[in-house]
Amino acid sequence: MMTTYERKQFLELVQQFRLATEANREALASKFASITQKQASEGFPIQPVLGFCMDEAGNKERGDAMFNYVLSRCDIVYWPMPSVESSLRKKAEVKQAAYRHAMVPVKVTKHIVMLCGTNPHDIDGIRSLFNLVATGEQYPIFVLSEPSRIMQALTQFA
Amino acid sequence: MNMDIPPQTLNDVYKTIAQRHETEPAKLPREKIEEDEFMAALAYNRGSPLIEPQDLSEDLIGMCRQSSRELDPKGMAEYRFVPLTIRGQTLLVISSCPWDPMMVEVISGYFPQCSQVRFALTSPQTLGQLLSQLQGEVSAPMAGYTSGKPAAPTRPLIPTAPPPPKAAAPAPKYAQPPKPAESLKPVPGAPGADAGSLSQDDVNYLMNLLLQEANKLLARKRMTRP
Q1: Is B117 helix (H, G, I), strand (E, B) or coil?
Q2: CATH label of the domain that carries residue A102
Q3: Which of A73, A100, A119 finishes a domain?
Q4: Fewer Cβ atoms within 10 A, N terminus or C terminus of chain B?
Q5: How far apart are CA A115 and CA B171, in angstroms?
Q6: Could you tell me which residues of chain B have a Cβ less than 8 Å from any Cβ in chain A?
Q7: What is the CA radius of gyration of chain B?
């Protein structure tokens, strides 16, 4: 089953890009669910719904258009170089939350925590990762990046 | 630190910091707030990434170099920005004054293919370091940079309205691109109006309009390498 924040983004994308008809929308959703269940059981990062939809788009241009659409529809700033904050790479609980939400803590300082993900609807992910990495009363900042870059960044965890 | 921050933005930052310290904005000892904390609160209020000196990696500088290769470093220093990257129709710019409508105007003129401009915030000092590194020099603060606004003729003469106040919220805030210069009121003397009776205000208004257009042209010329 998709979570609420995944479903929100999924429905927006399939509707906007006509990825699926009414008839096979559920089939597409269950394909996503089965892929992500398998990834979770094998301990791999969970593919973000945006990445899944970009793969299903058929070609790179359409996939890119999908990402650009998401970027243009929200006020969240694009971040071109997500990378896991080096001090957190060995923390298992951070890795687990990052894998589950396809989101990485890019920067943690005395005053800010900057998180980078792919789903602007994923408030749960922001909250859970922030609670794990914040050491005080830092300000949370969330930025967006491409699913491929996030998946690449997730490999930096030990 | 002199960043020419609009008063409303400044008040919002102090409100945010006061909230963090669980106190009233009026009771906040402003002179004791560290620059790091101030910049963090400003970035949080705008929903912008914050670029600090330790973030000036080779990757970041390489991307900036790639995006700014057609631009004149003096122009970037004057308008206090460095383009970082383009994604689709969105341009990401590092700036120490993302609220400056003139700078937004200059950027829009130079990147007409980008319908959206988003900002990563940085301090004037860090921007100076970045610009120095882009030019392959030893890092140093930009000479005369914090002294205030650039020379008067390059600034818009028509004041812009301050942004609306924002309520503080615990969730991350997302940045809105700074609004361009306020739209102009209808020109008196247009067809149908009483063209024969221009007041002094009307004349001033028209002069400002003319000067603003001239500034835009000059700024665009300055941004382009000869």
Answers
A1: strand
A2: 3.30.300.160
A3: A73
A4: C
A5: 12
A6: 16, 20, 36-37, 39-41, 43-44, 47-50, 52, 55, 59-60, 63, 84-85, 87-90, 92, 115-116, 118-120, 171-172, 174-176
A7: 19
- Tokens representing A103 are 């989101």
- Kindly state whether residues A81 and A53 are assigned to the same domain: no
Segment B100-114, tens digit of pLDDT: 999 999 999 989 999
- Cα B54 to Cα A139, B61, B200: the distances in Å are 18, 12, 53
Examine the domain organization and report whether A98 and A50 are in the same domain.
no
Q: Which among A73, A107, A124 is the end of a domain? A: A73
Range of the domain at A51: 4-73
